[in-house]
Write a structure and sequence with these properties.
It contains 14 helices and 17 strands. Strands 4-8-9-13-12-11-10 form a seven-stranded mixed beta sheet, sandwiched between helices. A four-stranded antiparallel beta sheet has the order 15-16-14-17, covered by helices on one side. The chain has a three-stranded antiparallel beta sheet with strand order 1-3-2, with helices on one face. The chain is elongated.
Length: 462
């Protein structure tokens, strides 16, 4: 490795090194040199022999020694020379500029390419040229990008649109924002402690969640099967920051484990939570969603759900029995778990079930041309009876003549026996093609009274 005054024989070496290997080694050792900077970018391996021959030539020209014959060449995985066809028409179609084949050949030769007929031999130092598109790039690079004339795209263009399920999600988002709610995004990974905070029992089916094999921590241990706990965390944060009122919602997929190792189902679910409102605001939001989907749903009281206040919670079911939503006031203990010192109202909408039953067909109903025959009916019933039960029976018994039904009074007092209440309804009877007679209205009223007495055990209040 060193030449002395007594040196008589010198061996010249010219080498080329693997670029990726040089880069990795340089980074690992923390050493950056001019040599590593050159080799890691990739140099032409074919130049090594020419370089050593030039060095030997300079030795002779300077009279520094005598060059002897003999070269040892070790070149594993020798790179084959790339040969490509010159396709003038295709190149012009790619770059959008009309150049003749002769002009293209002149440009390529000036760049060091060998052109014989319609074949191009790529020089070894241009390892980046591998296909016809690369040749086109070389042509336009030299002929000038400013020669490209802008042209419109050829072919037909189709207007993009959302899939029906995606479109409904956007429609629902627009509706909830219109109703004064703010959209929220939370993580799908949650800790199992979230289920404790909403009061789920140890054996509750909602606790059957997918566990993450490599969670980042206990706070991201499982995939949520219900969105409400995450949304309540966000709502509680808003109260901690001093917001006088807040109304949030989130629509996202939940993850229901599959059986037998199958992938989980990922139905959409919508959670809503607010404070600064009341039960009827939440009920109005749920009704607006169902009205938009044109679903004639039934509301029923729910008293056995640990998350909700036992006297201020309702479930919503479709005519076919499918559950569409549950909403109401949070149980005071659950609200306390999140640090709330006020009433909090929430809802869980089973968005996938609503979408499956939705009908977005526009329907026109003309204004009624004939007056309605209105009757007020008050029934004495057990305290546990719900107004929704009466409205269902009234509509079924009244038949096609039954129009709007309105609950206008609920009475509890000394004039009624203990454990009883009075529900008073206004029922409008109307025919689309004629004015009803008093006889027809009375017949419909008596059918309703008989049905309510026999099916609900209620009595007409005197």
């Amino acid at each position: 490795s060193e030449i002395k005054d007594t040196t008589e024989t010198v061996v010249f070496e010219s080498a080329n090194f693997n670029g990726p290997s040089v880069r990795l080694t340089s980074r690992a050792l923390g050493m950056r040199t001019e040599s590593s900077g050159r080799f890691e970018k990739g140099l032409d391996a074919e130049i090594t022999e020419r370089a050593v021959q030039r060095a030997c030539e300079l030795v002779e020209l300077l009279g520094a020694g005598e060059v002897v014959s003999g070269v040892a060449d070790v070149y594993k995985n020798k790179r084959e020379t790339t040969c490509l066809p010159l396709e003038a028409e295709r190149i012009n179609s790619l770059i959008g500029v009309e150049n003749d084949a002769g002009r293209m050949k002149d440009i390529l030769r000036s760049l060091g390419f060998e052109v014989e007929g319609d074949m191009i031999r790529v020089p070894s130092f241009r390892a980046d040229v591998e296909c016809g598109a690369d040749i086109a790039e070389e042509i336009i690079r030299i002929s000038g990008y400013d020669t490209i004339v802008p042209t419109p795209f050829r072919g037909s263009v189709r207007t993009g649109r959302f899939a029906p399920r995606q479109a409904y999600r956007h429609r629902l988002n627009d509706l909830l924002c219109t109703l004064g709610l703010s959209e929220c995004y939370t993580f799908s990974f949650i800790p199992s402690a979230y289920y404790d905070k909403i009061g789920l029992a140890a054996g509750d089916p909602l606790r059957r969640s997918l566990a993450i094999r490599n969670p980042l921590g206990e706070d991201t241990a499982i995939m949520r099967i219900v969105i409400l706990p995450s949304l309540l965390e966000s709502l509680a944060r808003n109260e901690n920051f001093g917001a006088e009122e807040a109304a949030l919602y989130e629509t996202a997929a939940v993850y229901i484990p599959g059986d037998g190792g199958n992938l989980p189902a990922e139905p959409l679910q919508t959670a809503i939570a607010l404070y600064g409102g009341d039960f009827y605001r939440m009920k109005g939001i749920v009704e607006a969603v169902l009205e938009d989907a044109q679903i004639d749903a039934a509301f029923a009281a729910c008293r056995d759900n640990p998350t909700w206040h036992p006297g201020r919670c309702a479930t919503v079911t479709a005519p076919d029995g499918g559950q569409l939503a549950v909403f109401g006031q949070l149980h005071p203990k659950i609200a306390e778990n999140y640090g709330f010192d006020r009433e909090v109202y929430a809802a869980t909408l089973y968005t996938e079930e609503i979408y499956a039953r939705a009908d977005f067909t526009k329907k026109f109903t003309p204004l009624p041309r004939y007056p309605a025959a209105v009757r007020d009916l008050a029934f004495v019933c057990d305290e546990e009876r719900e107004a929704g039960e009466f409205m269902t029976v009234i509509r079924e018994a009244g038949g096609e003549l039954t129009g709007e039904i309105t609950l206008f009074d609920v009475y509890r007092g000394a004039q009624l026996p203990e454990g009883k209440k009075s529900l008073a309804f206004t029922v409008a009877f109307r025919a689309p093609d004629r004015t009803l007679t008093d006889t027809e209205a009375e017949e419909a009223k008596h059918r309703i009274i008989a049905a309510v007495e026999s099916r609900l055990g209620a009595a007409l209040r005197n």
